[in-house]
Amino acid sequence: MEKIIFFGLVIPIMAYVLYLGGMAIMNGFKSKEANRVEKEEAENETSETRDTDSEQSINLSDELSKLNDLKEKGIISQEEFEKAKNKLLNT
After folding, report:
1. What residue segments make up the domains of the chain, in order of their start?
2. What average pLDDT does the segment 13-26 reach?
3. pTM for this structure?
4. Phi and psi for 74 in degrees, rounded to 5?
């Protein structure tokens, strides 16, 4: 009689507990992988933003140096230089 109770109740309960534990572990792995992917995407976005900002600042400094060269050579006046500089800085 005791064997019937053991095999009929305890073993299925133990199997169910093991199943629940395995599912919890697998859900943890899935969540960890999803978080890693999200973190990598966020890092890629910020690095792309930094790259674009640095390119824009390089382009801006190049344009300002070209304007300064034109002003020093006398091709444009001080007023034209200021207008062009303000236009570059405000965009």
Report:
1. 2-90
2. 93
3. 0.42
4. 85, 10
